[in-house]
Design goal:
This protein is mainly alpha-helical. Helices cover about 50% and strands about 5% of the residues. A two-stranded antiparallel sheet has the order 1-2. It is flat and about 60 Å long.
C-alpha cells in the first residue's frame, strides 16, 4: 500500500487506522490532519473575495479575486513565494492553495478577509455577513 486515507467517522474507522499503523513497514509516514474546509466555506470565501475585488483598489490597481486570495493567504502566513520566470522577464508565484486549509484555518482566513473588508468599507453580500456572524456565534 503506497498511499491510504481513512476519515475517522466511527470506531470501525479508528480500528482500521490502528490496524494499518500496526502492519505498516518501518519508515512509513502517518499524518493526522483536521478535516478540510467545507464547500459552503469555500463558496463564502470566494463571494467575500469577489466583493473585495469589486470594491477595493489596491495601490491604484484593480485586483481579481484570485489575486486577493493570495494576499490574504500570505497574511494568514500561508507564504507566497515569487521566483523569476523561465524567460527572466517576470516572476511566477509559488503560492499555496487554499484547498488544503482545514475548517479552522478557513474560518481564520474568512475572519481576516472580513476584518480587512470592514476596515476598507466593503459592503459584503447580506448572506455572507449573516453566515459569518452565525459562525462566530457558533464558535463562541
Amino acid at each position: 500500500m503506497s498511499r491510504a486515507l481513512v476519515v475517522i467517522r466511527s470506531n470501525a474507522d479508528r480500528q482500521k487506522a490502528a490496524h494499518w499503523a500496526h502492519i505498516a513497514p518501518y519508515g512509513t509516514r502517518i499524518e493526522f490532519k483536521e478535516s478540510k474546509r467545507s464547500i459552503p466555506q469555500n463558496s463564502r470565501m470566494w463571494a467575500m473575495l469577489t466583493d473585495i475585488a469589486q470594491q477595493v483598489p489596491w495601490h491604484g490597481l484593480k485586483l481579481a479575486a484570485d489575486d486577493w486570495k493570495l494576499i490574504f493567504l500570505d497574511a494568514l502566513k500561508r507564504e507566497v513565494r515569487l521566483v523569476p520566470n523561465i524567460d527572466g522577464n517576470g516572476f511566477v508565484s509559488l503560492g499555496r492553495s487554499s484547498s488544503d486549509l482545514s475548517k479552522t484555518e478557513m474560518s481564520d482566513l474568512m475572519e481576516l478577509i472580513a476584518e480587512f473588508g470592514t476596515r476598507n468599507g466593503v459592503q459584503f453580500s447580506a448572506s455572507d455577513a449573516e453566515q459569518l456572524l452565525a459562525e462566530k456565534e457558533h464558535a463562541a
